[in-house]
Each structure stands twice: as structure tokens, then as C-alpha cells.
Amino acid sequence: xxxxxxxxxxxxxxxxxxxxxxxxxxxxxxxxxxxxxxxxxxxxxxxxxxxxxxxxxxxxxxxxxxxxxxxxxxxxxxxxxxxxxxxxxxxxxxxxxxxxxxxxxxxxxxxxxxxxxxxxxxxxxxxxxxxxxxxxxxxxxxxxxxxxxxxxxxxxxxxxxxxxxxxxxxxxxxxxxxxxxxxxxxxxxxxxxxxxxxxxxxxxxxxxxxxxxxxxxxxx
Length: 220
Prior knowledge:
There is one protein chain. The protein has helices at 15-28, 43-50, 66-75, 90-99, 111-127, 144-154, 168-174, 180-183, 188-203, 214-217; strands spanning 2-6, 33-37, 57-60, 80-84, 102-107, 131-135. The protein starts with a strand and ends with a helix. Helix 1 (15-28) packs across helix 9 and helix 4 crosses helix 5 (111-127). The protein is globular, with a radius of gyration of 16 Å. Strand 5, helix 5 and strand 6 form a beta-alpha-beta unit. It has a single domain (2-206), classed as P-loop containing nucleotide triphosphate hydrolases (Rossmann fold). The chain is of the alpha/beta class and 220 residues long.
């Protein structure tokens, strides 16, 4: 079982959106997947309540219970656990980071967001786990994303190779408990998630099964 922590000390970075889309991607690859929702706002849990599909499982959790919940997930043959951490909650985020095999730090390519990731990177360093910044909600026009990547890498920050652009499908799909790839498997948003998940498979050293037919998983 692999564990990925989605961490950002800044609100609005897109943690939950990233978490649920990766979880659906994992399920579509044949992985038994769970999301542990540590955010008091319980956005991932609310998304799950709207779904017609019971997977991926979403569990509202507290940091103190992470070790026992991870052991329980492992005993139930989970292949992947994604931890959706809370913003501005150092103890919970540190617990998530320490439990993870890989840390993903979503960040919008804006000055305030880029300036705010230092605390999150420091937390990941304390946990001693591999951490990468994921540029999220990148404008589809212009070179903002490229400039943000260059600035981060110049500062010695590891950046996820794929980016997620600011696409309506990401926000529209979650309104009724779906993901972008379920809303439209042929969309640009679906392709970006697929590319991102392939990157994560490699960097988290994950094993996946034959990919499920997305048409059978698409919900009306």
C-alpha cells in the first residue's frame, strides 16, 4: 500500500480537487483507494456524499487516528491512501507528511501562493519524505506556469513535471460528486489527470492493474 499526502498551508490551493481526481484515477487503474479527509471543512467527504459510486472510499479522520486508520486500510487490501490535509493545521499536516510515501504540494502560479509555500516545504523537510510542488490552476494562456516553474526550480524546489490548468471541468464535475475524467473521459482535464497520475505511479513506485474502461465508470 502506498500513501500520498496532499499538503498546503495556504487555503485555496486546490488540495481536495487534486486528491479526489487522483483517487478516481487510481480506482480506474484497478487500485482499491481511500481518501482520508483531515480537513475540518470536510470537502472531500461532502463530494463523496453526492456520488452514486461508493468508490473511492472517503473517511473523515483526525491526525491522531492516522496510524490506526492506515493499518486498517492495509488490512483491507487498500492499494493507495490519499490524505487530504487541512490548511493552517501544522500538527495534522505534519502527521500526514510523516505517514506518506510521497508528498504533493499544490500551488497556484501566483506571487502570494508561491511565497506561501515555504512553510509547507519546511514541514515536508521535517517529515523527511520526498515532496514535490504541483502547479495547479495554471492559466491556459501565457507563460505564467513556465515562469513559476523556473522560479521554484531556481530556488532548489522539486516540481512535478505535469501541471494542471485552470479548466472549468475540474470545478464543474465535483459539484455533483464526479471527477473531470468521469464527466468527460476525452476532455483536456481528464488527459491532464491521466498524465499526472502516470507521473505519480513512477515517483511513488506504485503497481497498478489493467485500467478500467472509463466508459463503464462514467456516470450519467
